[in-house]
Amino acid sequence: METDIERINEWRSRSIQEIKSYADEQIRILKLDYDNQRPIFDEKRDGYLEIAKVYHISKGKDLFNELYTACQLLEFQMGQLEYVLDQKQRPKVITVEELTKGKKQDTTKAQAIKFENNQTRSIDENVYTRESNENDIAKSSAKSISSMPNGT
Predict the structure, then answer these.
(1) Please, where are the H alpha helices in the chain?
(2) What ranges does the record list as Low complexity composition bias (predicted)?
(3) How far are the Cα atoms of 11, 109, 125, 134 from residue 121, in angstroms, in the given order?
């Protein structure tokens, strides 16, 4: 039991470390992507601020609203999180009850297969015996006929 507990604890530690490493890598990628996009955002922001000043001075409300909408769309140009299914192998304790139940099912299946095999063997043996008997009868009949006198 102690060995099993130790193995489960080792698995837990490895899994936590793997998750931590994966999360750290994803954070690094996200920050790098943001740092790469930041100059583009700053440039667009400065350009939009200049345009907004011009629209404000000229009282172009419709143009200003279009600019406002364009600015809102900027937030969607950043990297986004996507969740992926990642199946990991993990230990599972199988109780004595489950083991016993499984062994009983295996024994029952084995007995059923053995029964089927015996049934098949019996049928095959019966067919062979019947064919053998038929051959013996045919040979006996042939001998009897050949030993009969040929005079009528």
Answers:
(1) 2-58, 61-73, 96-147
(2) 138-152
(3) 49, 18, 6, 20
Contact 74, 44 (CB under 8 A): yes
- Structure tokens, 107: 């024994």
**Structure tokens that stand for 138 in this block:** 């045919």
Identify whether the C-beta of residue 90 lies closer than 8 Å to the C-beta of residue 68. no
Distance of CA 66 to the CA centre of its chain: 47
Residue 93: partners with Cβ closer than 8 Å, 6 or more residues away: 4
Residue among 48, 84, 53 nearest 67 (CA)? 48
What pLDDT digit, counting tens, does each position of 69-102 carry? 877 776 656 777 888 888 888 888 888 888 888 7
Residue 152's pLDDT band (cuts 50, 70, 90): very low
Distance CA 42, CA 53 (A): 17
At 92-142, the pLDDT tens digits run: 888 888 888 877 777 776 676 776 766 666 566 665 666 666 666 656 655
pTM of the predicted model over 0.70 = no
